[in-house]
Amino acid sequence: MTIAEVSKKYDISADTLRYYERIGLMPPVPRTPGGIRDYDEESCGWIELMKCMRRAGVQIEALIEYVALFQKGDVTIDARKELLIEQRNQLVDRMAEMQESLDRLNDKIERYEQGLMTKEKLLQRMKQEREKEKAEVSDDE
Amino acid sequence: MTIAEVSKKYDISADTLRYYERIGLMPPVPRTPGGIRDYDEESCGWIELMKCMRRAGVQIEALIEYVALFQKGDVTIDARKELLIEQRNQLVDRMAEMQESLDRLNDKIERYEQGLMTKEKLLQRMKQEREKEKAEVSDDE
DNA sequence: GTAGCACCTGGAGTAAACTCCAGGTCAAGA
DNA sequence: TCTTGACCTGGAGTTTACTCCAGGTGCTAC
Question: Best interface-test mutation with B: which of A89, A105, A107 has the largest number of B CBs within 10 A?
Fold first, then answer.
């Protein structure tokens, strides 16, 4: 498979695919005798994995380390497992934070829907009153 | 409240707090006659909201727009609601993607735990065989 | 009234993750 | 064989979201 085909298949630019290989986000891609990339099933597997992990916000740094360990063979299995567990934990944490934000967004939207906006209207009213007071003080001068 | 106190309270650097105000991620913070920021409840509310949204990955751009709309008053209520809904939808999408990655990570970890690594071992075996073949071809030369 | 520390502004610098470019090869068709 | 379009590499540029800095001002305590 050429880089253009892979680019289309996974919706990742050719530049990004070359970049990923160059920084070690995947093992070297097989080449034709002329030096042109010829992606095989394994390469595609790596691309798909990295696309998935990157979309989830896993740092490139960690993924590079994983690939490096993978390339060192079976002696690194424990280290790889630890790395994955660490990333999983971070992912779970991030998702929990996002859930909080989601709840909050939903709350806010609901309030807009009800035309209530209690908190904000209250705060605005408070602000307006403070400004009115200030204005009155100025008038007294 | 001084910027140092707010910084500590929300665990956001003073530089970031100034930056947030400067780019319009929150309305202007009240000042002392000397020009020093004096955060009130409302400012703190904005900071907390923005911290929450940013942690969830909401783009600063969208948040700036929200604040701008908010400052234009009640006529922008519909636009603000739409903006929030859009951000909520994006958040939901991102969380779904993250869940996919999480499932995948969990799968991988489980396979490491079982010492199976079926897919990868299979791929490696395939690769080794390809290389062996190549080596044999070379020997024939 | 001055030492010293927190705060101010505008602007430059940084990190992560791409993205683009120049100048050069490869390969398939006329 | 020549053209043309896809690919190559190394390196520079871009975007987002901060982070740092220089040079200056505002309080507070001696």
Answer: A105
Alpha helical stretches, state H, A11-76: 14-22, 41-55, 60-71
Judge: B56–A97 Cβ closer than 8 Å, yes or no: yes
Q: Is B113 on the interface with A (CB under 8 A)?
A: yes
CB contact B106 to A (< 8 Å): yes
pLDDT confidence of residue B115: 77
pLDDT digits (tens, 9 = 90+) for A19-63: 999 999 999 999 999 999 999 999 999 999 999 999 999 999 999
pTM recorded for the entire structure:
0.83
Closest B-chain CA to A125: B42
Q: Please report which residue ranges of chain B form alpha helices under DSSP H.
A: 3-10, 14-23, 41-55, 60-71, 77-113, 118-140
Secondary structure tally for chain B: helices H, strands E: 6, 0
B8-30 average pLDDT score: 97
Number of Cα atoms under 13 Å in the Cβ half of residue B9: 14
The reply to whether residue B109 touches residue A56, judged by beta carbons under 8 angstroms, is: no
Q: Which residue is nearest to nucleotide C17 (CA to C1')?
A: A60
- pLDDT tens per residue across span B56-65: 999 999 999 9
Neighbours of A47 (CB within 10 A): 23
**CA of residue A24 to C1' of nucleotide C17, angstroms:** 14
pLDDT at A116: 62
- What is the rounded CA–CA span in Å between residue A9 and residue A7? 6
